[in-house]
Design goal:
This protein is an alpha/beta fold. Helix content is 41%, strand content 16%. The strands form three sheets. Strands 3-2-1-4-5-7-10 form a seven-stranded parallel β-sheet, sandwiched between helices. A three-stranded mixed β-sheet has the order 8-9-11. Strands 6-12 form a two-stranded parallel ribbon.
Length: 341
């Protein structure tokens, strides 16, 4: 039996990160697992079942002293730690510290202590920017992030740092990851006619897990990671089905509630390339919705259906496009809308 590979996983308490941890743990006879994350009540609770079997390192990814706590000689690094929207847009300095500076500090540490590590990075479809009019994306398309998309900019800069490093690496640009997300004001940032391709956290984690043993096929390459043809749907239809599952009824928000431009998401034209190597796709849009249905107890759906009007009223109050329209904020109107009628 071979010696276990040392695998470092950052951001292990996140939606995808925790799925990766669970799948890694299922193969603990193959992998010596170290997780690096912020020490919070949430992370401590999530890691509790594994704490006797894995190495847990708490700290800030952009703090060099915290990184020194990580053991040397890592074979594989799965770097998922990131500040994501909407927090990334609300706190751009923190987003840059974690997503860009944190990646740079981690790379520097690994070049010294684990120079032979294979570095696998989760980037984002947001780097391609607004593709409403050109909804088919390929990996060599230009990176033109939407205006004010702080998250996308940090990902682009992190990609450049990785490509310029001394490590071997591979970058996965993740499609919309659906599963475990809460509704937020971003609900209204996405135009209703967006071509949406999703991937589930389980499938995405499987891609990262399978990548560990496929270094020779992934080395120094960038890939688009999405669920494929069975995971595509226009955003208005996706949202309508999500509302129905949760007992919220029809998607009957006021006109101007949803932006008309300056977001991201589309279909991956070349997503098969990564799946051909890693064979990670198991879910479809239908299995995603079935899983979501099972998460909603009948009693909760009943209560939500009774309270759907005030709930949707509150959600609508969070719509920044509608606020811009009502306040006649010309700068924000220009940001969210193609033309003002």
């Amino acid at each position: 039996m071979r010696e276990r590979k040392k695998v470092l996983l950052t951001g292990a308490s996140g939606t995808i990160g925790f799925e990766v941890l669970k799948q890694l743990f299922e193969h603990s006879e193959l992998y010596d697992i170290t997780v690096f994350d912020l020490k919070t009540y949430r992370s401590k609770r999530k890691f509790a079942p594994y704490k006797k079997s894995i190495h847990i390192v708490y700290g800030n990814i952009f703090n060099e002293r915290d990184l020194l706590k990580i053991g040397a000689g890592q074979d594989v690094v799965i770097h998922l730690a990131a500040i994501i929207p909407p927090l990334a847009d609300e706190k751009p300095t923190l987003s840059y510290q974690v997503n860009t500076t944190g990646t740079e500090k981690l790379i520097g540490f690994l070049e010294l202590k684990s120079p032979n590590a294979f570095f696998i990075y989760s980037s984002s479809i947001s780097v391609y920017g607004d593709r409403l009019e050109t909804p088919w994306i390929k990996i060599d398309d230009p990176l033109i992030p939407s205006a004010r998309d702080e998250y996308a900019q940090t990902k682009i800069e992190a990609e450049d740092i990785i490509k310029g490093s001394k490590l071997d690496w591979s970058i996965f640009r993740l499609a919309a990851i659906m599963g475990g997300h809460k509704m937020s004001k971003l609900l209204f940032h996405q135009p209703l006619k967006t071509s949406l391709e999703i991937a589930t956290p389980t499938d995405t984690a499987r891609a990262f897990l399978n990548a560990i043993e496929k270094q020779e096929h992934l080395s120094k390459r960038i890939f688009n990671l999405g669920g494929g043809a069975t995971c595509r749907m226009l955003y208005d239809r996706f949202l309508s089905r999500s509302f129905e599952i949760n007992g919220l009824g029809a998607l009957d928000f006021l006109p101007k509630s949803f932006a008309e431009k300056n977001f991201h998401c589309a279909y991956y034209e070349d997503g098969e390339l990564l799946n051909d190597i890693l064979n990670f796709r198991k879910d479809t849009m239908e299995t995603y919705f079935e899983k979501e249905k099972r998460k909603v107890p009948a009693l909760r759906k009943f209560i939500v259906s009774i309270l759907k009007k005030p709930i949707k009223k509150y959600l609508q109050s969070q719509s920044e496009p509608l606020i811009a329209h009502r306040t006649q904020d010309k700068e924000m109107i220009a940001h969210f809308f193609k033309t003002e009628h």
